[in-house]
Amino acid sequence: MAIFEMIIGILGAVVLSSFLSRLMPRISMPLVQIALGLALALLPVFPTVKLDPELFMVLFIAPLLYLEAHEIDKRALYSTLRYSLPMAIGLVLGSMVLVGVVMHAAWPALPLAAACALGAALGPTDAVAVSSMGQSTAFTKEQKGILEGESLFNDASGVVSFQFAILAATTGTFSIADASREFLISFIGGVGVGVLAGIPTNWIFRFARRMGWETMTTRILVELFLPFLVFLGADDIAHVSGILAVVAFGLTVHFDHTGLSPNTARTNIVSSSVWSVLSFALNGTVFILLGMQLPGAMLTSWDNREVSRGMLAGTILLVSAATIAIRFLWIWLITAPSGKRAKGGEAGRRRPRSLRDTAIMTFGGAKGTISLALMFTIPYAVSSGAAFPKRNDLIFIAAGVIVVTLLLANFLLPWLAPKNDREESSQFEKVNVEVLGRTVAELSEDMNDENRAVLLPIIDSYNMRISRIKQRQGTFDAETFEALQIEALNWEKRYVRDTLAAVRADPNMDEHIRNLNIEACERMLDQIMNIVRHTANAKNRLDVISQIRGRYHAMHRQVSAIARKTLHRVRRSTPILSENEIYEYLRSVQIGAIDHVIEQLYRAMRSDEYPTEYCTMLLRDYQRSRARLSSRSDIVNRVKMAPQIDEAKQESYSIELGVIQDMLGNGEITRSQAKHLRRNVYVMQVDAESGM
């Protein structure tokens, strides 16, 4: 029961951290989670449970490393291997030796092997921790590729080095020849197991998809299960590195990139969402545990007369300085040849990388999840049965170094590499126009006399999206225009609410007509609120209460509509509303709302609240929508063709997702851009499936 209470408390703290990080955007989420873990540990009612180190390794490290390897931009990874591999292996070994020697010299009571284990654990960097604070930091493509590649491979090298250091600390013996031989066997064997597991996995999934056997449930469950199976198979059966096996497996499998059918797209959407939630929960849990570990380690050291508080604090600062210094020097030596060419263009002569670039790469390698997870796996006793020397002190020092590196990254990276939102937005808009243009080209190729009337409205909507994006380029202020769009949606919302109130207050209206108007208004309100939630920018996300209230009202309206229909069926008092009738009344409400917004836009143009050109741009969009809806024949035809248009719209989203995947595979867009583009499609896809 204590374990269950601890799990519930930790998960609750992880959920709370997601809300608090929005209220404190300048503080990285790992720091917020560490503070919450510290608060949990100080609660007298919260249980204290010891974790099994081996279980911790399997439960946390295996899925996190698999996801990191699977999601990494492989093209960028391969292009930066000449830098990331020396950093991932050489820098980890250098950190292990330097930290071990410095710690042992400063604290002779600590065995050298145990000090080296601390250095090995602090070798791996945490790309997840840095990416969480990357909202205000602009890494170059090369810097990002090096950091991601280093983070992926140094996890494996750090774990293997840590395990050998712990073996030497527990047994008291160490042989360089034996360690080198076992290292090579473990390294090559782990990679081999991962590749051998990944190749048949790809074949099996392709075959199952071709035969129609794959379902969303089986695909996601198997995908969640495989990293644990690969880790345990390599570690317990083959007796090689389970970490390297999981990394190699994640780099090899690509079963989610095959197939462009709507079912496959939906499965990929759900799989991505599941892994996103799992990754956030696992990373958050590790940082919560870090915060929970601090009081215990601190109290143990506090009661120990041999270790003073000043010595602990000084050791944390000393180890942090040593870790940062060797990282800075190593990056300067390894990546200096990759600087810009010197003037004159002589081959082989390049300017050394600037101190600023080196500092960005240095502080971009903050410690985090893997380092702490490794420290938790330190055994409680050595082979003789005695307690492992200074176990709690080592964990406390590692936690302190992690906090120091996170704080430095949190406050120095935005200053060293400030993010240029306008430049990034402009680049993304160019990519978005290219994706939309290719989607229109594919839709046009599929158009014939039979489906022309169905595809033309969809192609027109894509062309309008392209036109709006092109209008925004240049000196366009996206935040101001987005604020005007949200204000226009609020005008629509107020108009529909007033209309709904008038319908409900009219005692002379026919009951059937009243129900049609109410249903149309409520659907319109749901549509507006859904768009508002998805178009809100980062500042609007702070209004969490408004978003919760909006979702509550939408759910309340849907439940009321279902209850009303059920009541009508039971009483048989009125006929069930037909979708064709609702569609016509919905269009009538939309026309009225558009007229109201157009009137408000004309008023806004006469004031100085919004720039005139932005009002004109949005006004043209509403006028085009008004012209389409005001045509009676257009309404009738669209009612008849609504099912075909909805089906074609879903197919267009699948085509757009396929274009994004092809551009990502060809290296035309980055993985981050592809993720953002897919998210936009998913939002529209969900809206279409819900009948919005």
Automatic annotation (TrEMBL):
Which biological process annotations from GO are given for this protein? regulation of intracellular pH; sodium ion import across plasma membrane
Which key words tag this protein in UniProt? Cell membrane, Ion transport, Membrane, Sodium, Sodium transport, Transmembrane, Transmembrane helix, Transport
Report the subcellular localization. Cell membrane
**Carries keyword Cell membrane?**
yes
Q: Which GO terms describe its molecular function?
A: potassium:proton antiporter activity; sodium:proton antiporter activity
Query: Which cellular components does GO assign to this protein?
Result: plasma membrane
> What membrane topology does the annotation report for this chain?
Multi-pass membrane protein
Q: Which residues form the signal peptide?
A: none
List, for all copies, the residue spans of the domain called Cation/H+ exchanger transmembrane: 15-416
Which parts pass through the membrane? Answer: 6-24, 31-49, 55-72, 84-106, 152-177, 183-205, 217-234, 240-257, 269-290, 310-333, 359-382, 394-417
Q: Which PANTHER family match?
A: SODIUM/HYDROGEN EXCHANGER (PTHR10110), SODIUM_HYDROGEN EXCHANGER 7 (PTHR10110:SF86)
Q: What is this protein called?
A: CPA1 family monovalent cation:proton (H ) antiporter-1
